[in-house]
Amino acid sequence: TEIYTLSLHDALPIFWLFQELPHSVDPDRGFNLKVLMDHPSEKLRAQLPKAVTSLLRLLPTCLAVAGGAVLGSVSRWAEWGSDVDLFLYGLDRDASADALRQIDAHIAENYEGDYERTSSAAAVTFTKKKHDAASSIDEKQRNRPFQIILGLHRSRSQILEYFDLAPCKSLARHDPESEELIVEALPIFINSLRRMAFHVDIMFWSPAS
Predict the structure, then answer these.
(1) How far is it, in rounded angstroms, from Cα 4 to Cα 8?
(2) Percentages helix, strand, coil for the chain, rounded to the nearest 5?
(3) CA–CA separation, 206 and 62 (whole Å)
(4) What is the C-alpha to C-alpha distance for residues 187 and 163, in angstroms, rounded to an integer?
């Protein structure tokens, strides 16, 4: 297995907790069992709300979608998440607050009247006031609510480590150079799909799961 190691950040006298970056998900690399869609990023793009893909394009270096919404789109057997979770990463508190203001402004300007915004201590949630007509699974998935999870995450790896269920340790981000969605996952994600087993990471286990 190819392993990437995070180096110490020159400006910060701290040690990284996580030694493995997410790996790009490739459906044809080393799998004896076909567990992924042939084109995971394309399938995910087809099922994400348009507002989500536009937000990923707006903040390509610090915003990612992760968890069940990614799992349901890229795997051949898992269910879709009931909503879409977005995470900010690599920002301090002030920069995160500024990113949230950018998100609010973007939704207000580009999707005026389409979404109801609610907030709690844990997340800012956008719910469609009126669902678009949907006849296919992809169209139905685009009507899902999405939420910005409030929390400081140092890296994409840290986002994934904090999911207690292994099948949720996958994410997608926008690549500004290729204009494509890049789907990434920790190695345990693939192992879990190959075995069709919901491994639980005890360190981050939540009773809510």
Answers:
(1) 13
(2) 35, 20, 45
(3) 25
(4) 14
Q: Where are the alpha helices (DSSP H) in 12-167?
A: 40-47, 50-58, 68-74, 93-110, 137-141, 156-161
pLDDT digits (tens, 9 = 90+) for 116-164: 999 999 999 999 998 877 778 888 888 999 999 998 899 988 888 777 5
What's the pTM value of the predicted model, to 2 decimals? 0.76
Report whether 152 contacts 92 (CB < 8 A).
yes
CA angle 200, 204, 209 (to 5 degrees): 60
Structure tokens at 197: 């087993």
Span 55-72, pLDDT tens digits = 999 999 999 999 888 877
At 69, give phi and psi (nearest 5°). -65, -35
The single-letter code of the amino acid at 86 is L
* Residue among 38, 55, 39 nearest 182 (CA): 39
Rg (CA), the chain: 17
DSSP 200: B
Residue 149's Cβ-count burial label (10 Å; 0-12, 13-18, 19+) is: middle
